[in-house]
Amino acid sequence: MRMRNVFMAGMVILSVSMMTPARPSGGTVSGKITYQGTPAKQKPIDMSKEPSCAKQYTTPPTTETVVTGPNNALENVVVYISLGAPDEAAPSKAAVFTQKGCRYLPHVLAFQVNQVLNVLNEDQTSHNIHPLAKTNREWNKSQPPGSPPIVDKYDKAEMIAVKCNIHPWMHGTFAVLKNSHYAISGEDGSFSLPDLPPGKYTVTAFHESYGDQSQEVTISGSETKTVSFTFKAKPY
Amino acid sequence: MRQKNIAKWLAGIAMLLATPLLVSAQQGESHIGKVTGHADSGRQLYFRYCWGCHGFRGDGNGENWLPTGAYPNSPNLNIQPRNFVSATFKCRSTPTGTLPTDQDIYDSLVRGLTNSNMPSWITLTNQNRADLIAFIKTLSERWKTEKAGAEITVPAEPAPTVPGIQHGKELFTKLECWKCHGPEGRGDGPSASTLTDSNDQPIRPYNFAAGSRFKCGTSNHDLYKIFMTGLDGTPMPSFADVIKPEDAWDLVHYLRTLQVSHKSPELALWEGTKEGAEIVRAQKIHGTPTGSGVNQ
Q1: What is the pTM of this model?
Q2: Core-most of A15, A24, A58, B189, by most CB within 10 Å?
Q3: Residue from the list B179, B191, B198 with its beta carbon closest to the beta carbon of A132
Q4: Rounded to an integer, what distance in angstroms lies between the CA atom of residue B177 and that of residue B248?
Q5: Considering the domain B162-285 in this protein, what is its CATH number?
């Protein structure tokens, strides 16, 4: 009996694994983002004007204009395909931007044109969410604690600075992009853009303090091409 | 047969050619009440009356803003003139992020903007103003792709009552208006000194104790619209998703009691209560009208 159960389980597992669709054959562009020089020192944030947030930290958090990792890694860089890939319809999953501890999580949020954006307030204080769009519409809404998520979307690609006027230390970025080929560099500065069909692409890397850089890359099959970016750091 | 086909082709082409003419007649126009304004007439007026501050491109960089025409951010005018190219307007009756109606721009032209260098253009005729608005709308691409927002519904105003005013006071605290406007509405809240507008220019919140006019009008109806649509381009957000319309009138009536230098029925009602009388008396004693926070 037991053997039969094991056999049945094995058959189920085997058939399920055979049912998973074949992965789209595509190339990958991956690499590392680093900086050269001395970046500006990040300062501790004084949240004394907002005690409900200040008390959430044992040591005050620092500003995030330049976030670095070991070996000169540069975090929070949006890497995306700016040319060569067709525009894509937005996915149905919402992009989520959270206000917590009087900071924005994540600091940089990448999502697609017309993708639904949900802004959540998980703090005990009101925030006003004020994305400073220049190409898209600029709006400004108050969000007291306990409010439902603010729902909106953008119909044009743009890098949008986001701020809260009540808490001037809060800064974030919306990277509104035209297709699904994007990544944000992590603590080790690495990124990966998989599932690229053969073609000639322009890969662009954008950093909120250092601007953007682009490189061209050609994918012919399912190879992995390495593309790396180095930004020149400014001491201020 | 051939002639019929040619006739059909010509008719089709004629229709195609006519459509852009119809469309361009719609653009370049404004409608205020019974008056229709035209951008061509507005252009002449703009380059006579407006461009000195608003600039020849309509982007707010006029000579009066730039002392030499070269360096921006000059202190000649401490509040930058409206940038019509970006088409973000403070005074609207439409939701945050949407374009104002023609009437909204007309009202701003007639009233001027308090505490700024924008005068009241009551000296022009209705037709002049309508023409100007039609021209202003040609300065930004936004009017080609977007329609004006839907005007918000403002329910009928109930008479002010003491419980209403007290409820308004609770809302002022709960919605944290005091963080910028200060607990007495003097524009001296904890966040006031760090406020910047969307062009990174320093900006101060409204000081209710300083007077009677608001940036966008003078009536209770105007005040209602200010916080239910937000002043786009400034730190003042929209509270439309957060305040119910009946609560909004309570807040309006409470805000009138913060205008201690301005006689209003709400202030009179408030001063008739013990709590209100104490608060108003205390406000009248210390602090300067400019809201600079200097206690005398």
Answers
A1: 0.83
A2: B189
A3: B198
A4: 13
A5: 1.10.760
